[in-house]
Amino acid sequence: MLPARRRYAMHASIRMRIMLLEGIFAPITTPFYSDERIYFKKLEFNVSRLSLTALAGLVVLGSTGEAVALDDAETKEVLRVAAESTADEKVLIAGIGRESVKATVELAEFAAAAGYDALLHYFRSVADRSPLPVILYSIPKFTQAEIPIEVIAELAQHPNIWGLKESSGKVERIRDVVQATRLAPRRTVTVTPIFEAVTGRMLAAKPAVAGNFISAEGLAAGGDGGVALAVAPPQPARKTRTREVGFQVLTGSAATLKESLDAGASGAILAFATPAPQACQEIYTAWKEHDDKLAIDKQQRIADASNVITGKLGVPGIKYACDFNGYYGGKARSPLLPVSAETRAEIERLLAQIRN
Predict the structure, then answer these.
(1) Do 110 and 76 touch, CB atoms closer than 8 A?
(2) What is this structure's pTM?
(3) pLDDT in tens, the chain (356 residues)
(4) By the 8 A CB rule, do 342 and 294 touch?
(5) CATH 3.20.20.70 fits 4-198+241-311, yes or no
(6) Sequential DSSP letters for 302-330
(7) Where in the chain do CATH 3.20.20.70 domains reside?
């Protein structure tokens, strides 16, 4: 095995973006027309509406987004449109996995240029070359295997691997990962004065807009017989501070969210947060406020709906739940089949008290 110094050497062109991964993230769906073309206006609508919630951020083109059903051109356009529609303060995570490392890195570079903050992936060789931090993705439901704890502990030493999404639903595994990665490098992240994430888009220079601001120099020029020009007002300096974080673990299970947070998870990427962001956020907020009883009550409130809609029905069920809760869901791309009338009625029953 190569020495750690060589294994984890980063390419000189990689520009590290330091990111806090805390709170609830929604892995958004990809809307389609009835003929399966991507419905970009509805994508904009969903992302804009989710940006108004208290969610920490969005995951674009994860498994809930039917990423495997999109070609590269469609993938880039979805990444671009979603980034342009998301509020600057929301953390953006891109799902850009491809069969080859080369193709994955190319999409990682596109996501970085589009303003994303991190990637959801599972190859160390991608992390070696990625311009964005990598979040490992463990989802045994699809891979039929778990990333061994000792492998996660080793990968946590990589300078460009910042966390893990653990979708096994096992609280003890969350606890084991947190314990195994406790000696991972500590990183200094930029946060707001109230310790929320500062995204790359928040720090990026915004294009000048027309305005009626006249500087003191402009007024002086006008007083000498010249013309005082109105310009856009100067952007106020954004106040930030720093915070130290270690390896960050996100759970993928709404049914065990509170217990996973107790076990050391910093937040969650929850498919159920896509149609029901407020209901998921309420669990996290109650936990942050140390109200265990309320957190448990809020979690029990969504348990049946989450288990059926996301665990049993998958993407078609999530999309219908979006339709029912005021977002645009629509149909999934074939070969995924739409839910039946009987199943739609069940989803409506489960969500009757979980509206957004």
Answers:
(1) yes
(2) 0.87
(3) 334 433 333 333 334 456 799 999 999 999 999 999 999 999 999 999 999 999 999 999 999 999 999 999 999 999 999 999 999 999 999 999 888 999 999 999 999 999 999 998 877 899 999 999 999 998 877 777 889 999 999 999 999 999 999 999 899 999 999 999 999 999 999 999 999 999 989 988 565 555 555 555 555 555 555 555 555 665 667 889 999 999 999 999 999 999 999 999 999 999 999 999 999 999 999 999 999 999 999 999 999 999 999 999 999 999 999 999 999 999 999 999 999 999 999 999 999 999 76
(4) no
(5) yes
(6) HHHHHIIIIIIIHHHHHHHHHHHTTS---
(7) 4-198+241-311
Q: Which of 29, 77, 73 is nearest to 50 (CA)?
A: 29
What is the Cβ-side half-sphere exposure of residue 181, based on CA atoms within 13 angstroms?
Answer: 29
CA neighbor of 18 nearest in space, from 237, 258, 186? 186
Residues across the chain:
356
Task: Record the tokens describing residue 11, joined without a space.
Answer: 């390419």
